[in-house]
Amino acid sequence: MKNYKLLTPGPLTTTDTVKAEMLFDYCTWDDDYKQVTQVIRKKLLKLAHASEETYTAVLIQGSGSFGVESVLTSIIGDEDKLLIIANGAYGERMTEIADYAGINYVVYRAHYNETPSAKRIQEILDADPAITHVTMVHSETTSGILNDIESVAKVVKGAGRDFIVDAMSSFGAVDIPVEKLGIDFIISSANKCIQGVPGFAFIICNREKLQESKGKARSLSLDLYAQWETMEKDGKWRFTSPTHVVVAFAKALEEMEAEGGIQARGGRYRANNQLLVRKMKEMGFKTYIDDTCQGPIITTFFYPEDTNFSFAEMYAYIKERGYAIYPGKVTEAETFRIGTIGEIYEEDIVKLCDIFKEYLEINDRREAV
Ligand SMILES: *Cc1c(COP(=O)(O)O)cnc(C)c1O
Questions:
Q1: Structural domain ending residue among the three candidates 258, 275, 293
Q2: Which residues line ligand 1 (CB under 6 A)?
Q3: Which of residues 258, 285, 308 is at a domain's end?
Q4: Alpha carbon of 298 to those of 141, 206, 215, 338: distances in Å?
Q5: pTM of this prediction?
Q6: What is the pLDDT of residues 235-281, one digit of tens each?
Q7: Distance CA 342, CA 339 (A)
Q8: Please, what's the largest Cα pairwise distance for the chain?
Q9: How much distance in Å is there from the Cα of 364 to the middle of ligand 1?
Q10: Which of 71, 85, 168 to mutate to test the pocket of ligand 1 (most atoms within 8 A of CB)?
């Protein structure tokens, strides 16, 4: 069936108008096309509340992980040491990137349903002056928890270290005053809350810190400085750019402005999320993350107790009726996830919950016999 909506954390359901932008084949060195890239870069800085004097935006081919890998492997030099804060699979992925690249690092792990403690980070930084950079995930898509980057930014900047944030699944939906917080590099991608299609990642970079990284990159294709140097000239990408993705993203940015920017988009996602959680709880589902730190992007639910519940069967039942949900990713419990981002509205959540209810009733009847 080709007409289901995605209730996943990206790629997500996009508008028909964003998809329609991809019907034309652009020429990568044409001025009109290069201008599209430049406009995108400017708009991204605005969304990040980052001034053009201090910050610059770089787009890089690939999925979000390519963006994270580009930053970590381009910015952290051989003399540097990285503190990775991890409370989910995306934090753990950063340790894998560091392992592959031979980056000197330490990890502070918090439990998947707990936000990392700024106080603990302060202690780690005080005890280890060799640490030069700190990195963490904002919205941990593994669980849906929203980490408190503000209090961590205070500690990291107060200690004079550089701060790298993976805001992949929050940028565009949760307002982040990047310059005010002093974040040096913040990463997101085309197919999350801006509601574009997959194909590139983007990084808002402190210009000075980016320029200092010249020559440090451990990979040619992911060299952040080299990518920026080429793009900064006139908007031409260093290697073949994902043209269709880029023009679709430009359209997605326009549609986001028309919706009312981060405020309105974040508000819609939050409303989706709150409605979902309320209705699912009414049906007896429990959330993995406490309400106090549950983000608006994606929610993890425990499998229902006391039933011979099959996720695969339920998934198929729901998909047939128009929605694709997501399996769980936390390690210690049986869970599934429902994303509330993308071109999704409260009416979708109502429909989805009706489908859940139907399914649970069928399941109950089956168990009764
Ligand atoms: C989506 C996502 C990524 C990138 O994942 P890709 O599969 O490479 O796009 C990284 N971090 C977080 C928090 C994400 O949600």
A1: 258
A2: 9-10, 63-65, 68, 90, 137, 141, 166, 168-169, 189
A3: 258
A4: 7, 29, 38, 6
A5: 0.97
A6: 999 999 999 999 999 999 999 999 999 999 999 999 999 999 999 99
A7: 9
A8: 71
A9: 36
A10: 168
